[in-house]
Amino acid sequence: MEYQYPMDYTWSTEEIVDVITFFEAIAKAYESKVSKEELMKAYRRFKEIVPGKADEKNYTDEFQESSGYSAYQVIKKAKETADDGWIQMK
């Protein structure tokens, strides 16, 4: 599916790609499954680009409005999952 990915146009091309990679991992958790390792790697990079909690919430809320997918719920489930596990939202 196609979504509107939230972004800040002051980000570099690499940062934009990395943020999109994070949101794609969130979508994969809903549409099929994603490894915890892949998801958390993308999340850590996202947090380097968007370190503030308020900004993180704004971007993830914007993505949720566009896609219906909650980054918060996916990350919460990932933190409860074994390191070699898979994240799949139902």
Task: Explain how this protein is built.
The chain has a two-stranded antiparallel sheet with strand order 1-2. It is built from four helices and two strands. It has one domain (13-87): Annexin V, domain 1. Helix 1 (13-31) packs antiparallel against helix 2 (36-49). It has helices at residues 13-31, 36-49, 53-67, 71-79; strands at residues 34-35, 86-87. The chain is globular and about 35 Å long. It has 90 residues and is mainly α. 24% of the residues are buried. It starts with 12 loop residues before the first helix and ends with a strand. Helices cover 63% and strands 4% of the residues. The mean pLDDT is 96. It holds the Pfam family UPF0223. InterPro entries: BH2638-like_sf, UPF0223. Belongs to the UPF0223 family.
Topology:
Blueprint: H1 13-31, E1 34-35, H2 36-49, H3 53-67, H4 71-79, E2 86-87
Antiparallel strand pairs: 1-2
> Which outline best applies?
globular
Return the domain count: 1
CATH T-level fold name: Annexin V, domain 1
Number of strands: 2
- Count of helices? 4
Helicity range: 55-70%
Structure classification: mainly alpha
Poorly predicted sequence stretches spanning 5 or more consecutive residues: none
What does the average pLDDT come to? Answer: 96
Largest sheet geometry: 2 strands, antiparallel
CATH architecture: Orthogonal Bundle
**How much strand?**
under 5%
The SSE string, one letter per element, is HEHHHE
Distance between the termini: 17 Å
Kindly report the spatial arrangement of strands forming the biggest sheet.
1-2
